[in-house]
Design goal:
- The protein has helices at 2-15, 22-33, 38-44, 54-90, 109-122, 137-140, 173-181, 221-235, 289-294, 311-319, 332-335, and strands at residues 127-128, 134-136, 165-167, 186-195, 206-216, 242-249, 252-261, 278-287, 303-310.
- It is α+β, with helices and mostly antiparallel strands and 339 residues long.
- The protein has two domains: 2-90; 109-338, Bira Bifunctional Protein, Domain 2 (BirA Bifunctional Protein, domain 2).
- The strands form two sheets. It has a seven-stranded mixed sheet, sandwiched between helices. The protein has a two-stranded antiparallel sheet with strand order 2-3.
- Helix 1 (2-15) packs parallel to helix 4, helix 3 (38-44) runs antiparallel to helix 4 and helix 5 (109-122) packs across helix 10 (311-319).
- The structure holds 3,4-dihydroxyphenylalanine.
- 3,4-dihydroxyphenylalanine binds at residues 170, 172, 211, 249, 252, 283-285, 306-308.
């Protein structure tokens, strides 16, 4: 038994420095001092020792127990401290580290153009109306003076859904829908996506138009030119010159196109304006009598003027975007430039 006491003491001395965690510590403590621990068992075995040895042995075991308790108490403090330090180390925050940046998005160039046109016209008392992208043949063509089998339908290569339902090829059907809902005088802007089966560097199967419609008494081509000129100069350059060219649209008579002096060369001639000095900006005209009638307007009292702008084209011109695809690929490197 005496040897046993020595051995246990040595065991504890070499064990204590190896206890790295709380769990290891408590396991070790109970292996010696717990109910079935080695020291407890020694005390219990005292009865088996020869009677004359018992007092000395008992004293020695008790001393061992007190010593061990002291040792474990010390060790507990060390282990707790080590564990706390380890936790601090693990959960340490580096408050000098730069934070993750919140990225702020940018408006799409088409949205910029749309907002700009709306701002220009809002000052003139225009309202905004948005028609459906899935249209019927009547509103997209027939009511706009393009009956079935009319050759003008070839100008707009159409995605048909059924024989009568299609993806609108222009925002002009919004003119009819406005007339159906509103009594004159009318001043509306109709922005929206339009669809045609076409595609190259300047054409995309989905693009954006802005329609303008005014219905009032005694409107003239002079009013039309006034509105178009005002818009073009606000959009491009207050110093720019504008000109009207005769054109053809089935829903206007007369029909015009508006050119503005080139924003790059100011009329001298360059690559952008193909050396003409002029850039085509939009189409327009006096609303055809038949179109007004199809919209239920009394043509004895009222007439109208209308305009249509390709917003993608304007964005490409204003921002120098060479290919229309760049507008729809959602490449961050491109979009970030519009912050
Ligand atoms: N809808 C025509 C197109 O897509 C553009 C247009 C031209 C609209 C003249 C108009 C207009 O309202 O008066 O080509």
């Amino acid at each position: 038994m005496k040897e046993n006491i020595e051995q246990i003491k040595n065991e504890i001395i070499s064990l204590l420095p190896t206890l790295g965690t709380n769990k290891a510590f408590y396991d070790a403590q109970s292996a010696y001092l717990g109910k079935a621990g080695k020291i407890t068992m020694l005390l219990r075995g005292l009865g088996q020792a020869p009677k004359e040895d018992r007092p000395a042995l008992g004293k020695a075991i008790n001393e061992l127990k007190v010593w061990a308790e002291g040792q474990f108490e010390q060790a507990e403090k060390t282990v707790n401290k080590a564990e706390l330090l380890a936790r601090y180390e693990n959960e340490k925050l580096d408050i000098t580290m730069p934070s993750v940046k919140d990225e702020v998005g940018a408006l799409h160039p088409i949205t910029h153009i749309k907002n700009e046109i709306i701002d220009i016209f809002a000052g003139l008392g225009f309202e905004i109306f948005e028609g459906p992208e899935i249209e019927d043949d009547f509103h997209n063509f027939t009511a706009l003076n393009v009956p079935k089998d009319h050759p003008a339908r070839d100008m707009q290569d159409t995605f048909f859904i059924t024989e009568d339902i299609l993806l609108r090829t222009q925002t002009s059907p919004g003119q009819i829908r406005t007339m159906e809902r509103r009594k004159p005088p009318i001043k509306v802007l109709i922005p929206g996506r339009v669809f045609r089966s076409e595609g190259d560097a300047t054409h995309s199967p989905m693009f954006h138009q802005m329609e303008g419609l005014v219905i009032d008494k005694n409107l003239s081509v002079r009013d039309l030119y006034g509105v178009l000129d005002y818009l073009a100069k606000k959009l491009f350059d207050g110093e720019a010159q504008t000109r009207l060219r005769p054109s053809f649209f089935p829903f206007t008579e007369p029909s015009v196109e508006l050119d503005v002096t080139c924003c790059v060369c100011h009329g001298k001639g360059c690559k952008l304006c193909k050396n003409t000095g002029w850039i085509e900006v939009l189409g327009g005209g006096m609303v055809h009598k038949k179109v007004l009638e199809n919209g239920g307007i009394d043509t004895n009292e009222y007439n109208g003027l209308a305009l249509g702008i390709g917003m993608d084209r304007i964005a490409m011109l204003k921002y120098g975007i060479p290919n229309i695809k760049l507008l729809f690929e959602n490449d961050q490197r491109m979009l970030k430039q519009f912050k």
